[in-house]
Design goal:
- The chain has 8 helices and 10 strands.
- The chain has 280 residues and is α/β, with parallel strands linked by helices.
- α6 crosses α8.
- The longest helix has 20 residues.
- Bound molecules: iron/sulfur cluster.
- The site of iron/sulfur cluster has 10 residues, from α5.
- Iron/sulfur cluster binds next to α5.
Length: 280
């Protein structure tokens, strides 16, 4: 049976998502920050994380953004192939929702033309990835991505012989270069395999997982654990002032690749690791 959904509903729900994500840090991130307080031993590092939690509480209760950088709007959309979208196009509905959400929520508009640097004025266009899936539902995941952490993202085509050691060294190099600029403690998305753009997409998609939830494939969850330990040994620490928790989690996604290739992408999310998902 074919279900229907009106574009106005998509617009309104997207607008609310933009506001919710900006004001409310989700429970998985708060729980990860609680764990970080337990792990940290120096008063300074513990106090910084306590202040991040206090900032999240104030934002939630006073209905104000967690951070002044309310990000570029990124959407991963799964469209059930038995769903009909009525009265318009889904991309337009999402962009209309972003316009409304960023306006009504008083969120900073951060999107500019890349060359003239002229602000588009309404935080559009959103970046939208769509995928057709079985069923009649619409699943919309939203991630507003701040410039500080996004700028620290890197992709590299490794030599396949570099293997897991090469991947670890690359992730560590990215984090060392990022330092305080990515607003640690961070969440690190690592995309391994596919081709050039697939690896980058995997790295970003990995950030949508609830923070600290392991990959279901054992070899990838072991890799996540190993990378997290290695990153946290760097001592960069909360906001870069030293400590044991530089990253709250490392999420790895992989995809088969060419025999001659080993693409690896690192996409970093800051401590304001905002993400929301709705199913319509
Ligand atoms: S990187 Fe994150 S926490 Fe830092 S300024 Fe940007 S949005 Fe805010």
């Amino acid at each position: 049976m074919v279900s229907e959904i009106h574009v106005d509903e998509i617009r309104d729900r997207v607008a609310q998502m933009c506001i919710d994500a900006a004001y409310t840090l989700s429970d998985d991130v708060l729980t990860a920050l609680d764990r970080a307080i337990e792990i940290e031993t120096t008063p300074a590092a513990r106090e910084i994380i306590r202040q991040l939690k206090e900032n999240a509480r104030i934002a939630r209760e006073d209905h104000i953004p967690l951070c002044q950088d309310t990000g570029i709007a990124i959407f991963f959309v799964e469209i059930g192939q038995d769903l009909r979208i009525k009265n318009g196009l889904i991309a337009e509905a999402i962009n209309e929702g972003v316009r409304k959400g960023y306006r009504d929520g008083y969120l900073r508009k951060s999107v500019v033309d890349p060359l003239t640097r002229r602000n588009t004025g309404d935080n559009t266009p959103a970046i939208i990835y769509t995928e057709l899936v079985p069923g009649d539902k619409l699943r919309i995941s939203f991630m507003p991505k701040g410039g500080g952490s996004e700028n620290m993202s890197v992709i590299r085509m490794l030599n396949p012989t570099e293997g897991v050691d090469g991947i670890r060294n690359f992730v560590l190099e990215c984090m060392q270069k990022a330092g305080a600029n990515a607003c640690p403690p961070v969440v690190i998305g690592v995309g391994i395999g596919g081709d050039f753009e697939k690896a980058a997409l995997l790295a970003k998609k990995a950030l949508l997982r609830p923070v600290g939830s392991p990959n279901l494939k054992l070899e990838l969850s072991s890799l996540e654990e190993m990378l997290l330990k290695a990153v946290n040994k760097t001592g960069i620490g909360p906001v870069g002032l030293g400590g044991k928790v530089t990253a709250l989690a490392v999420h790895v996604e992989s995809f088969p690749c060419h025999i001659a290739s080993l693409p690896v992408a690192v996409n970093i999310n800051c401590h304001a690791a905002r993400h929301k998902t709705i199913i319509l």
